[in-house]
Every structure is written in C-alpha cells, then in structure tokens.
Amino acid sequence: MLSENKLPKNCQKKARFRFLRKGIFIVVLLLVACFVTPVIAQTNNFPLETFPLFNLDFANTTTKAAIAIDDQEIFQVSRTEQLTASERAEKINAALKIAIASSQQLDITIQQRNKLPVIYLNDRHLLTIINDDLVDDNSSEQQAEIWADKLEEAIKEARLARNPQEIQERAILAVIVFLVAIALDKLIRLLRYYSLIKAFSKLLPGTKLDNLEPHKLKFLLKLRLILARVILWFTTIYWISDLFPASRHWRNVLINFFSGSFSVSLFSLGDRAYSLFDLLILAALFWGLFIATQTITTFLRTKILHQMRMNRSSQEVISIIVKYGLIVLGTIILLQIWGVNLSSLAILGSALGVGIGFGLQDITKNFASGLVLLFERSVQIGDFIEVNGNRGIVEKIQARSIVLKTLDRVSIVVPNSRLLADDVINWNHENPISRFALPVGVAYSCNPEIVKEILLQGAKEHQEVLDYPQPQVFFTGFGESSLDFNLMIWINEPSRQAVIKSELYFKIERLLREHTMEIPFPQRDLYLRGSVPLGLSPELETAFKRWLNDSTSQVSENGNK
C-alpha cells in the first residue's frame, strides 16, 4: 500500500477535499440539529400530531375536529354553543358512513336557515356553517359550496372504492406495484456488488457484459443503498395500503399508535417532560457530536500537527486532550440547548458519583493513570517495552488502556494502571540505544584470547551492531565443562533484539568452526562403590538356564555339521 506522500498530488487533493467536505457536512448537520430539534423537544410537539392525514383522534382536539371518510380528512369543524367540536364531528361522520353504505342516489343541497347556510345530505340535515368554521376569508355561502363539493367528491370516491370491480382493479394494480418494488429491491441489492449496468444485466438475463468487473463499495455508499431500500419499501407499503379503505384504516391506526408511543412522556426532569422521541433525537445529537469530534481531532492530528513536524506521541497527546475536551464541552452545550437544567442533575450526579466511585473504580483508576502517562510521557507510542513478561511495541495509548503489539503481531490490551503499579522495561525511554549480552561457552582446550578476537570479529561484521559504544567481551568464569564468555553489544533498535541475537550466534558458530574451536557439551563420569546385589526370581532364573542350554546345544550341532 502506498503512503500518503507517495500518492499523486491530484489524488491527495481529492482525498483532502472529500475529508474536508465530509467534516463540514457533519458539522453543519449537527448545528442544524442543535438549533432546530431542541425547539420541537421543548415545545413537546411531535410533528405527526399536527399532520392532517393522521390527526383523526377526535377526543384530543378541542377547538377543531376532523370530518373524515375512510380515514381521509376532508375538512375541520369548530365547536358550537351546544356541542363540542369532537361531538359535532362524530355526528357528521356517522351520517356520512350511513350515506356511503346506502345505495340511494347522492343528493347534497345547501339551504338557508336562520341566515346561515345549511348542508343537507339526501334531505337530511348534515351541518350548519357557522362563523368559526370559515377559513381563508370565505363567506358562509362560499364555505358551504366548497364543503359540499368536497363531501360529494369524497362520498363518490368511497362508494367507488367499495365497488367489487374497482377492488379487483386496485388489487391488480397493487400486485403490479409490489412486483416492481421487488425488482427494484433486487436491483439495489445487486448495486452492492456490481456497477449499475452490470446490475441491470444480472436483473435481466440474456445481456452479456463480461468486461465489467464487480466493484467494492465503501461504507457510506452501502449505507445509502440500505436507506434506499427502506424508503422503497416504506413508500410501496404506504401507497398500496392507501388503495383500500380497510388497509388505510389499519395503517393510520398503527401510525397513530407508534406516534403516540414516541410522543408520550416517559419521565420528568425538573419542570421538563421527556418522551421517547426526545431521547432518540438527543441520542442522534450525541452521535453527531462524537462523529464531529472524531473528524476534528483526525483533521488536527493528520493535517495541522503533522505539518508542524511534531512526533507521533505529541500528536496523540494533543489530539486526545482536544477530543475529550470537545466531548465534555459539547455535552454541556447540547444539554443546555436541549432544555436540561444542569442544576437539576446535581443530586443525581452526587448519587452517581458514589456509585461510580465504588462500581467503576477500576475504570476511573485506569483513566487517571492514562492522563498521567499522557503528561508524564514515560511510555509513548512506538516504544518497545516489557510489562508482565510481554514484550512489544506500543501501538495506541487510550483513555483506559494501551495496545501492545508483540513480536508475534499479537495485540495485548494492558490497563494503564498496570504501567504505573508494575515494573515496566522501556528500551526507548529518552534514548533507544541499549546493550544486551550473548553468553558463549567453549572447551577448556581453547585459547581465551583467540576466542575474544573471534567474538569481537563477529560483532563488528554485523551491520546493526553499533561501533560506538564498542562491543566488549567479558570472561565470566570457569564452568563445569566450558570456559564462559559474555559478548556485550549495543544496538539502537531494541525491538530487533531476538533477530540480531540469532544472526550473531550463526556468525559466531561459523567462525568458531573455522578456527577449530570446540563448543562443549556437559559430560558426567559415574563411579559405583561396593558390590551391587543382583537377584533374579526363580522363574526368571529357570527361563534363563533353559535359554542358555538351548543356545549351547544349537552351537554344538552347527559345529558337528
């Protein structure tokens, strides 16, 4: 994989532009959510409640009530001196249901009674237009004519929807739309693995496009395809359910149920009540805050701090401090904008503080240890350390732990508190140059001076062994079967200790063989004092004598022959 510096300049510019555009989009989206959705949350009004198609709950309306046929609102009426708006709408809707079920020819007329226009349905009083019913500066007569036309059109549509032939035609249309939705859904699923033309060729067999290869999608594109499928099926089901009165009724019942479930108050904090919808919006805002914080810190580390020629450890320290500072500041701002009085959380915070002190003491201890490590910088990213018998390179320093990548390429997560409580060997601390010893043993017949020259020669021939400080050879003593030496060398890459040690042993063994130097192995002499009693069982003695006699007889027979 090419590094960023090896990429073409135009590719670097495009990548930076996409990164900057993504960051600006997320920040703008977060700002819009902060200043728009809290207004909805503070007024405690869910948008679906004011949406006219679904606002069919007559008991909850006081000044206005909906006149609806087959769960489709026609207009709204006001209260009178004798009836509330909901009672008046209930009587009108009952009369409309009777008219729809009747086979009588539809007759809607307007007559004047007590200087007010009255709408009659099949010579029966339906409703009287009062001043509170007027909309858009219409006169009573104009409002009556408008409502009479709407009623006539709605009743005819309701009767047509109950016609068996119309039901059959709409059912066929619903099946066609459903099949088209299935085809589009399959096309969208194919777009996850193929280009658009290739997907069409897979959807419509017979088209050969062998020159087009499958392409891999990024996460955002996959997310868009999933969102497209959700929108496709939601639109399809919504449209098909709108074709039939019964399905339309149950659809609206479900929508009203879920909208009511989302908007009902779950708990109160201070003088503010919170619903499930409020919590979902608040969770979305926090998710946007984390994404924006991650984008800002990534941009700060990879663009600004990298251009300032800071080392990797300093970049990580600054980015982590900025990240958690932005999260804390953003959390306070979000809660204030959302309408949460932080003073009301004082008692809850004190109670949680006691629980956190006991239940999360390890996490708190590790977090505090992580801050100490960041500021103390005794362990930094890229250091080769040994802790609890595990050797590896520090890959990440997080708030709770560090990630140690061993020489076997295995990641070990070490809590930060271990680095402060236990002994940690850091070969890169302040200076990566370190020394280690290679023990070598030779036979007693070898000349120690020649052995010293051989060991120094092997060290000097290795490219990764430093010339200064110079390698040294120490005669450590007389072993049981060998003369023991220690070759002390200096290197500036501690993580390659095992590799360098192995290469030096290969070279030293070759040089010793060239100079006919013997590498001994332990030898033991065994002396037995006194007589050792050896007894055989009678059965074993009898078998041994039988075998001895048979062997003697066989030798005699061979000699005679």
Strand content: 15-25%
**How would you classify the helix and strand content by structural class?**
alpha+beta
Give the helix proportion (percent range): 40-55%
Unreliable segments (pLDDT under 50, ≥5 consecutive)? 1-9, 34-61, 209-215
Query: Order of strands across the biggest sheet?
Result: 11-10-9-8-12
Write down the overall mean pLDDT. Answer: 77
Our count of helices gives 16
Largest sheet data: 5 strands, antiparallel
* Net shape: elongated
Number of strands: 15
Our Rg estimate from Cα atoms comes to: 44 Å
Spatial gap, N to C terminus: 86 Å
Describe the structure.
It is a single chain. The chain has 561 residues and is an alpha+beta fold. The protein has helices at 9-43, 47-50, 85-101, 140-161, 164-190, 196-203, 219-241, 245-263, 276-307, 312-338, 346-359, 361-376, 416-421, 448-461, 497-514, 538-560; strands spanning 64-69, 72-78, 108-113, 116-121, 124-128, 265-269, 272-275, 384-387, 390-397, 401-406, 411-415, 424-426, 434-442, 472-478, 483-491. The strands form 5 sheets. A 5-stranded antiparallel sheet has the order 11-10-9-8-12. A hairpin with a 2-residue loop joins strand 3 (108-113) and strand 4. Helix 9 packs antiparallel against helix 10. The longest helix has 35 residues, at 9-43. The radius of gyration is 44 Å and the shape is elongated. Residues 1-9, 34-61 and 209-215 have low confidence and may be disordered.
